[in-house]
User: Fold CHASE2 domain-containing protein from Hassallia byssoidea VB512170.
Amino acid sequence: MSKLVVLNLGRGDLRRGFPSVTVQLWEEGNPIAMQFTGSLPPASSLWQLYRRWQLLYQLLYEALYPSLGWRKYVNKEDEEIEIDEDDVTNISSVDFINLCDDLSQGINTWLKSEAFRNIDQKLRTTLAPDEEIRVILATEDEEVKRLPWHLWDLFEDYQSSIVGISAAEIERVKPLSKKPGDKLRILAIIGNSEGIDVQKDRAILEQLPGAETVFLVEPQRQELDKWLWDKQGWDILFFAGHGSTQTDGETGRIHINKTDCLTVPQLKNALKAAIARGLRLAIFNSCDGLSLARNLASLQIPQMIVMREPVPDLVAQEFLKHFLAAFADGESFYLAVREAQDRLQGLENEFPCASWLPVMCQNPSEAPLVWQKPIVAPKRKSSPNRRILRIAFQVSLIVTALIIAMRSLGILQSSELKSFDYVMRSRPYEAQDQRILVVGITEADVRTQSAKERGGASLSDKTLALVVRKLEQFEPRAIGLDIYRENPVSADYASLAKTMQNSDRFFAICKTSEDDKNPGIPPPPEVSVQRQGFSDVLTDPDGVIRRQLLAMAPALPCLTDKSFSFRLASRYLADFGIIPQLNPEKNFQLGNVVFKNLESNSGGYHGIDNLGHQVLLNWRSSPAIAPQVTLKQVLNNELTPDLLRDRIVIIGTTAESYHDYWSTPYSAQKMPYQPMSGIVVQAHMVSQILSAVLDRRPLLSVLPKWGEVIWIWCWSIGGGMIAWYFRSPLHLGIAIACGLAILYGVCLYILIQGIWIPLVPSALVFLACSVIVAVYTKNWGVESRK
Assistant:
């Protein structure tokens, strides 16, 4: 049950006392249930004690938090009052706390006086501890209004009670009726915020359920006046910024922007119109609020919450957050204020007397404001949320269509390929492929051979004959010579020529003709076509190898139709009875694995030359694709049977002077990766085929076009949804960052599984839709209230 106690002090002041104090007890808005009287003796020392507390409060906060910059906004009257020099130089938190205790003790001693005892006893015998109790102090004495009445131990004993101040003479203003379920309308003025942070106040208001808020940021006087006259009316007026008192010490003012400040009399007509149209509550998160309350009380506004002294940002924000959270959750207005005041006590280690600062001002003839939760009516007209959802859906379609169009024109190809490389490099490491051995010919190996015998090549006939003989004794499954040898073997090395002619394990390379300037390189004449493979590789426009060419139509002087890597892998798999075949779709099939040909517009590619049998190259994520030795180690008999038996041995040049180096996804950035030698590239290609067939390591594929469109569109919708759900810029920014991180993680995981899904287009639509919907939500939310 709710009780209202109006404590009318009548005429008098702290110097002369209050000879006639009347208490009226109301019960849930019914006529007076009880009335009794008493008096209060003079207590001039209380005012001096409070003024000392007030000045030391300001000095303490200036000493603790000089960056708050209150000095330029403090009451001019305070600056003229002298205070002992020792108070300035020796003030400490302990001294201030002792002063707070003295003030609390002084107030309770005064209220326990014999003349007031009758009132105190009757209140305690009439009121129940579990009742919601409002104590309204009605007086015209401004000094008494400033005293911290919440220190009266009555409020300690009655935890659901709260004190407010009121003018002695009041009248009731009948506002326009409000329909049940209507949203509360809040006019939020963000004034001059120099040196203070008002953005958190704004964020708190933006997240309120069941409220429509219009923000005026540093408005001009004409703009503020226009909004106060709004015909729809307002329920709550909120101000955050600097406040001060004029030199007369009685007129409060608010600094609405960096150059202008206004007093209540200057807004009198507009405020009266707003009150008549339903304004029930004014909240001023500013300094010197009691001066504003005095001026506003004459306009008979029902409720006000002000700050009695300069208030730190965190204290003001915490009070606002806790009050609005409790109020919007169904607590009564008064219990919400009391709860928010009490919770400020937790900040008093850092901000002394924080819980003293909020003051409630009340017109006792007015019923309290109630936070009405909106009633959802069954009507066809779209609600703001549904409208925003519909807009988010429409925006997602438009943005997705634009990005797909850009993608189909090849505008995004470069960025998609770069993102593909980055995701490739992010995969976890894999073990080396132990089925392959790389024999690299270094610069030192080249120099140890006779230049005359080499004839400009990296490997002379003599050295090659010796290397092949040493390798064959360990019975490798295949030997691939990744070195061009268009000239016949010298007659002095007939055994080498015989091996090249007859061995089914020896494979060599040739190069097809590209144009007149690049006529190609024929294969060694001793090697049959069935053991020849072209060495041609496919590079993208940026010079990076991302595709593998398995086969193509023969072109002079290279008459083979299979690649070098495909020949070596096929020879290795033949021992398992696995023979390459073309399926009805003209794709190579080895065992159960189909190497599906790449289309010209596969994945992030646009209009590439897809002639021949091409597949995406799933590079092995390993610091070294396979074990590697040098020519010197082979010649020095440092090889073991375990290193060679049943392996594919690839012989090639790693010497930089022969310029057989290529850019790959692992060398697309200069550091720490470097261009990859041709022999290692060939090893990667052989490993891809063997691993796909024997180890079920996934080949890279792409989604069908309709699948890519749906994937991109889903992320477009996701961007719109988070912008609809998260209204705070900070929360939206965090959600966008988390969304992009999730997108990247999903793309990485699916690439490891063998599917290249669009990353850049998805990120673009996600960002675009979230920004567009966020901007629309903000602007539409303001325009819909005009």
Remarks:
- Residues 1-169 form one domain.
- The chain is about 40% helix and 15% strand.
- The chain has four domains: 1-169, 173-374, 383-426+703-786, 427-701.
